[in-house]
Specification:
CATH architecture of one domain: 3-Layer(aba) Sandwich
Strand content: 15-25%
Structural class: alpha/beta
Number of helices: 11
Strand order of the largest sheet: 3-2-1-4-5-6-10
Distance between the termini: 29 Å
Oligomer: single chain
Number of strands: 12
CATH topology of one domain: Rossmann fold
CATH superfamily of one domain: NAD(P)-binding Rossmann-like Domain
Order of helices and strands: EHEEHEHEHEEHEEHEEHEHHHH
Length: 343
């Protein structure tokens, strides 16, 4: 990955990163380390910091819901990357999304204003803009119907807070990643990483619906570089979609099969059946708790297009999109290596 070069200010001030244990967060931390930045990472109590420690890295423990934690972590920081969020399709207590994604963002921005930081880059999501209904949308898109889930709803509310802060002379820029993939992404059951893992080792790929809806599939290195570019070049108060190639799930299955040299059969599961399964899963989650493997909102998302343009980021930031075949080849090599090392 080509990392934008910059002269690190020798003032002893640090860069704060929230959400550093996530897929994008971990990759961003590595890129910032490569730039020679002194880092402060705000991590939830008990979260796994393995691989994040190192020279010049200070770990701060605290929850985004706690304003005191935000103020404490912000001390001595000049720049902030706020990626921290509850990223999930469902929670037994929906208000948890509001506390983490909305209140947490407010706490970070208030602490940043108090500390007088140079700039905040806030990580939103194209899900907050909504589905695209057969077109390729940009940053001006606005989803006015009920949101599919509480994650998208609260990320949209948090974006409104960011926008208000920008009108009050705060130097804040928003980046909106699309569906991200790449080496290192696994463990999230309905992520691009989970889908690619199944494609990489199977001969049959079950999927809800036709698989004909388009999604913007973005490579992890592009997303990280987009964050760095937004910090350096983004205009205050602007939003930048960090997307990738707009492609259907069927297209990805076909491409992976070609790369593997083995056929993969796309197996469409009727939406009605999957919705029934999701309803039962959510009911089980509410009654007895535990992991909810599939949700009605997730199934609904599969039935729509999520095709977005990154033209604004390309034009204003110098953002670049990795060709899908290249990104998938790197991801498949990593998946093969991970499987081999696990044996």
């Amino acid at each position: 990955m080509s990392i934008p070069k910059r002269d690190v200010v020798s003032s002893g001030l640090s860069v704060l990163v929230t959400g550093a244990t996530g897929f994008i967060g971990r990759a961003l931390v590595e890129a910032l380390k490569a730039q020679g930045e002194a880092l402060r990472l705000l991590l939830r109590p008990g979260s796994d910091a393995a691989g994040l420690e190192g020279p010049g890295v200070t770990i701060c423990r605290g929850a985004l819901e706690d304003p005191a934690a935000a103020y404490q972590a912000m001390k001595g920081c000049r720049r902030v990357y706020h990626l921290g969020a509850l990223v999930a399709p469902w929670a037994r207590d929906p208000s948890e999304f509001d506390r983490v994604n909305v209140d947490g963002t407010r706490h970070i921005l208030e602490a940043a204003a108090s500390e007088g930081v140079e700039r905040v880059v806030y990580t939103s999501t194209v899900m907050a803009l909504g589905p695209t209904f057969g077109r390729v949308a940009d940053e001006t898109a606005a989803w006015r119907a009920p949101f599919f889930n509480d994650y998208a709803r609260t990320k949209a509310r948090a974006q409104e807070i960011v926008d208000r802060c920008a009108t009050q002379d705060m130097n804040v820029v928003a980046v909106l990643p699309s569906l991200v993939y790449g080496p290192g992404l696994r463990g999230l059951e309905h992520s691009a990483g989970a889908f690619l893992t199944r494609m990489a080792k199977g001969t049959r790929f079950p999927f809800p619906g036709s698989g004909q809806g388009r999604v913007s599939l973005a490579y992890i290195d592009d997303i990280v570089r987009g964050h760095l570019l937004a910090m350096e070049k983004g205009r205050r108060g602007e939003r930048y979609i960090l997307g990738g190639v707009n492609v259907t799930v069927r297209d990805v299955v076909s491409l992976v099969a070609t790369m593997r040299g083995k056929p993969i059969r796309f197996a469409a599961i009727p939406i009605g059946i999957v919705r029934m399964m999701a309803t039962l899963e959510e009911l089980k989650g509410r009654l007895i708790g535990g992991k909810v493997r599939i949700t009605r909102s997730g199934i609904e998302a599969y039935t729509h297009d999520w095709a977005y343009s990154s033209e604004k980021a390309i034009r204003e930031l110098g953002y670049a999109i990795t060709p899908l075949r290249e990104g998938l080849a790197k991801t498949m090599r990593w998946l093969q290596s991970a499987r081999t090392s696990a044996v």
